[in-house]
Amino acid sequence: MAGILVVAETVEGEISGFTLELLGAAKVLSGEGGGAVTAFIASGPAQALLAHGAETVYTSAAAADSLAEVLAPAVEAAVAASGADIVLVAQSSLGRDLGPMLAFRAKTGVAMDCTGLAIEGGRLRATRSAYGGNARAEHTWKSGVQIVTVKGKAFDPAQAGAGGGNVVPVEVVGEARIKVLGVSKAVAEGIKLEDAQIVVSGGRGLGDPSAFKQLEELAGTLKQAAVGASRAACDLGWWPPAQQVGLTGKTVSPNLYIAIAISGASQHMAGMGGSKNIVAINKDADANMVKVSKFAIVDDYKKVLPALIAEIKKLG
Ligand SMILES: Cc1cc2nc3c(=O)[nH]c(=O)nc-3n(C[C@H](O)[C@H](O)[C@H](O)COP(=O)(O)OP(=O)(O)OC[C@H]3O[C@@H](n4cnc5c(N)ncnc54)[C@H](O)[C@@H]3O)c2cc1C
């Protein structure tokens, strides 16, 4: 029997945005012949998973913040009960442990950090970035359960619907051999880069860290915008590494991505290539970012930015 099991996670008692993206991916795969969508949740809002497209939700007696070693046997039991042959896990701190652990236990392979999924000939084909973003690796499984961890923002989140379906308890849980002594939450000010609908990003071509003040002004003028940067700009200490966009930084897929003095290297594109509209401000008409952009302003950003900010301000 074919089917797709989504391993759900919660954040402060709510289904995580990442989980909704997994359910969105599962729906697409189901439409391609991947079978029924089911979900596993350690404990928590199972009904919300039904409302977002899972036909059956398997729950356990484990705490919501359980470690992978506790959840692995329960997920395994849910896979067996559901008959799923595809397991979607988030590329989160839990998923990075859980994906390989499940694969080891099931004597199968795991494809990590995937950005593309498709059903071909009844089996899964998973795509991920390789060789530092310079190539794409495609994975298929000859047999057995196909386990993937999925990169954040690679899929659109599932929308809530009518719901309905069953919640089935799974009795088995694993033993915790690791003790978590404490968890500290990263303090983030303003809109989170990953959640922003507009991202204004700066690169090495800004030539001066003080230029980020102008980017902040542009972001403030646009409202609901966050400021990101290329790795080159972050490595120079011009902007916090936590705000780096790209292969080794954050993945974003906003409605509008404004790339200012960023060349558009493949490793940067790996983190923002899914943006709905890309606007490039670059003095080099041959820069890759200009080529992939929907609109480009080919000029010195020092001339462009003040004029752009003034025009947007006029719009109110
Ligand atoms: C394993 C690996 C992982 C990596 N991960 C990442 C990652 O996560 N994110 C990332 O960004 N990079 C990453 N990189 C680095 C990546 O390869 C590039 O080196 C980097 O993205 C370049 O940054 P940049 O575009 O800001 O700088 P540059 O490539 O130097 O480009 C600067 C641009 O600014 C333009 N410019 C210059 N002056 C002006 C001006 N006055 N007005 C307008 N335009 C101007 C130039 O025309 C040019 O296009 C990674 C590299 C490796 C090997």
If you had to describe this structure to a student in words, what would you say it looks like?
By secondary structure, the protein is an alpha/beta fold. The chain folds into 2 domains: 3-169, HUPs (Rossmann fold, 3-Layer(aba) Sandwich), CATH 3.40.50; 198-315, Rossmann fold (3-Layer(aba) Sandwich). Helices cover 31% and strands 26% of the residues. The protein has helices at residues 17-34, 46-51, 68-82, 93-106, 211-222, 231-235, 266-272, 288-292, 301-315, and strands at 3-7, 10-11, 14-15, 36-41, 56-59, 86-90, 110-120, 123-130, 135-139, 146-150, 166-169, 198-202, 225-229, 256-260, 277-282, 295-298. Strand 12, helix 5 and strand 13 form a beta-alpha-beta unit. The chain binds flavin-adenine dinucleotide. Flavin-adenine dinucleotide binds at residues 132, 203-205, 230-233, 244-249, 261-263, 265, 267-268, 271, 281-284, 287, 300-302.
CATH architecture of the largest domain: 3-Layer(aba) Sandwich
Q: Structural class, from secondary structure content?
A: alpha/beta
Indicate the proportion of strand residues. Answer: 25-35%
Shape: elongated
CATH topology of the largest domain, anyone?
Rossmann fold
- Stretches with pLDDT under 50, minimum 5 residues: none
Radius of gyration: 21 Å
Number of helices: 9
The set of bound ligands, ions and cofactors reads: flavin-adenine dinucleotide
Total number of strands: 16
Averaged pLDDT, please? 95
Q: Largest sheet, order of strands side by side?
A: 9-8-7-10-6-1-4-5-11
